[in-house]
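Limitations

Structures in this collection are predictions, not experimental determinations, and the ligand pose is part of the prediction. Treat each record accordingly. The example that follows, with S-adenosylmethionine as the small molecule, is included so readers can see exactly what is and is not provided: the inputs are given verbatim, and the output is the predicted complex.
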Amino acid sequence: MAVKLQTIADIRKYLSSELAGLYPEGEIWAFTAIITASVLKLSRLTLHGAENKFVEPKDALRIVGICEELKSEKPIQYILGETVFLDCVIRVRPGVLIPRPETEELADLIIRENPGFTGELLDIGTGSGCIAVAVAVKLPSATVSATDVSDLALGTASENAALNNVKINFIKADILKGEPGLPRETDILVSNPPYVRNSEKEQMRRNVLNYEPHEALFVPDSDPLLFYRAILAKAISILRDGGRIYFEINEALGSGVRELTASFGFSNILVRKDINGKDRIVKATWNG
Ligand code: SAM
Ligand code: GLN
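Predicted complex:
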């Protein structure tokens, strides 16, 4: 190591200069907070005022390694192997989508709208399991099932259930093929399915395009709502009377998802915006 990294202040300076030009300044600050919290096992709050705290040489070396990986634009969550989703530590690995802040908003809405929920919830396209795990942690009387077509996702999601001490019923199924095996009835159905149109790839950042699973993200421009149609078709046969759906959606497709949902006979359809003011969640009620 050419430079000596002995304190948190040294680390801050090192990351700022090494990553300058590669990432915006605000993002480098965020990386610094995430890396120091994770490697030094310090809460983000404790970091304030800890500038002169001594950093062990082995931790400094690990931080230099992480910084090198960041230079290749590998997402920080894959480098560290974990992220935090609504207070739950969620493991991730390449091949499994990194949970997004918008999805935290979706899970948080379900939790806030259903205090003391004792029914059944099914998460379709569970990925890392972030939604299912957070709901199971925060609504401990719920019975939670989750499905995905990817073995890697299901394996990671079950690790995350164990890590967070919750029981989730995982099912491998391809929602587009109407395979059997899903619960026969449920009260809440949630999904954040693939919804980014292929034509939107150009606007996406390289760290997403080069590292994240395309089958978790992209849909053809000719039929961008194909997952919602398949999920709604399943939903009307398994939702109990008064049951609800919660979808994360492409910000450009709010009215399309609303109309599709209405065409299946759902009521109380609501398109909600995320904290950035973009259409992000559709929820609706099934009244048989
Ligand atoms: N729920 C996770 C989250 O919010 O972070 C992952 C969402 S990701 C946008 C969509 C997920 O759907 C991926 O995990 C992907 O493997 C899964 N998926 C894609 N095609 C599928 C299919 N035909 N049937 C079931 N799941 C599918
Ligand atoms: N919001 C994610 C992204 O922009 C996409 C999630 C999804 O396709 N469901 O990368």
